[in-house]
Write a structure and sequence with these properties.
Alkaline Phosphatase, subunit A, eight-stranded mixed sheet, globular, disordered N terminus
């Protein structure tokens, strides 16, 4: 390795300030895990309104059949009207134990059908200003040091965590945090870092003390993160061999090991299902995606064991899909969609806000997409106030003055 490559590697490496507390977290420390289903997942096939006959007329090829004993491609019944996609057996088990709050009609008025604009609105919790994210504002107003309280297990920092003076760290894979590929190069770089931060910081640099403090901890912090990444699942949990499965496994290890952690964000892509979406067929496109999500979530809560009682997972998306299937046996950009809150602290069951909005042409938004009955910010309000204990909702959700949805026990 030449000098140029060495320096390039050092300065490209994210400095993970605030990650030095690798001890078992306090039993009372609550952790919010936000999973963004990017691409707009089809809420009508995630949570199937099998009690509404209009659904089957709109989706002759991709509808999920109503619950039926012995039919592996039929919906898993929830309450006699709604069912869960048949590939989501792990999540259905959690629902039956009261640990899943299902919100089939979440969105906002005047919505965007652009992936980029829609994701910005959901992650900023603002229809007007996308300069900061709702989770960043929570961290800013909740006291303490944001860097010690949040982490994104993803390729890049999401907008929801953007807007802090010092960015929160984002890592797609904690196991890949290596200074170099060979042991000799790693030893050389470790020696360079140790000697570079052995001196007192320059007095004329206002950020010198913070920089040197971070640099001096860098090797220990990388070692701690790598150790977390190598932690084996507990309680017999088996994660799918997918990127999301790996990231949730690492998230579970972080929750157990990192003191002060409050917020983790992750992403699951692939939900822009314009074609060949599939219904309940186990080999269908949606079935494969939903099985991977559901099995990963089931393994995650099993892995956490006793720590699961202090964790809430919130699955969100930028919009739903059209009520009717298109000519390619898929669905296009729509309006309201299903959100899920998962954990021991939720009020399990179906949460409609008011009532099922219906699927007839006059009930659909623009005659094509499911109407919303729950403003997404009412979900955030409940999570912030009743799970995380935030008391300053007007600062975190400045454009919203409505009530919070009663999904937290």
């Amino acid at each position: 390795m030449n000098r140029r490559d060495l320096l390039k590697g050092l300065f490209a490496l994210p400095l993970c300030g605030g990650l030095s507390s690798f001890v078992h977290a306090a039993p009372s420390q609550r952790v919010l895990v936000v999973v963004f289903m990017r691409g707009g997942w089809d809420g009508l096939n995630v949570i199937v309104p099998h009690g509404d006959d209009t659904y089957y007329g709109l989706r002759p090829n991709i509808a999920v059949r109503p619950p039926s004993d012995g039919d592996s491609a039929a919906a898993l019944d929830l309450d006699g009207f709604f069912g869960m996609h048949p590939s989501m057996t792990a999540l259905h088990n959690l629902y039956q134990s009261g640990q899943v709050a299902v919100m089939p009609c979440v969105h906002y008025s005047g919505s965007s059908r652009s992936h980029f604009a829609g994701q910005d609105i959901i992650e900023s919790a603002s229809l007007l200003n996308h300069d900061s994210g709702w989770l960043a504002r929570y961290l800013l107003h909740s006291g303490g040091t944001p860097l010690t309280k949040a982490l994104s297990v993803s390729e890049q920092l999401p907008l929801s965590l953007t807007g802090l003076a010092t960015p929160v760290s984002a890592y797609a894979d904690l196991a890949s945090l290596q200074l170099a590929s060979s042991s000799s190069d790693r030893a050389m770089l470790a020696d360079v870092i140790s000697r570079s931060y052995a001196w007192a910081p320059p007095s004329n640099n206002p950020h010198g003390a913070a920089l040197f403090s971070t640099g001096a901890r860098l090797l220990d912090e990388l070692s701690g993160l790598q150790s977390v990444a190598q932690t084996l699942p507990a309680n017999g949990a088996t994660y799918p061999m997918t990127a999301f499965g790996r990231q949730l496994r690492q998230t579970a290890a972080l929750i157990r090991a990192r003191e002060g952690l409050e917020v983790v964000t992750l992403n699951v892509g692939g939900w822009d299902t314009h074609s060949n979406q599939g219904g309940g067929d186990p080999a269908g496109r949606m079935s494969v995606l939903l099985r991977g999500f559901s099995d990963s979530v089931g393994a995650f809560f099993s892995d956490l064991g006793g720590d699961a009682s202090r964790v809430l997972m919130l699955a969100v998306t930028e919009f739903g899909r059209t009520a009717a299937e298109n000519g390619s046996r898929g669905t296009d950009h729509g309006n309201a969609s299903t959100w899920l809150a998962i954990g021991a602290n939720v009020r399990g069951g179906i949460h409609l806000g008011t009532q099922w909005p219906g699927l007839t042409a006059t009930q659909l938004v623009d005659g094509r997409a499911l109407a919303h009955t729950i403003d997404f910010r009412s979900v955030y309000g409940s999570v912030l106030s009743r799970f995380l204990g935030a008391s300053n909702l007007s600062a975190i959700l400045p454009e919203y003055s409505g009530s919070s949805l009663d999904i937290i026990a």
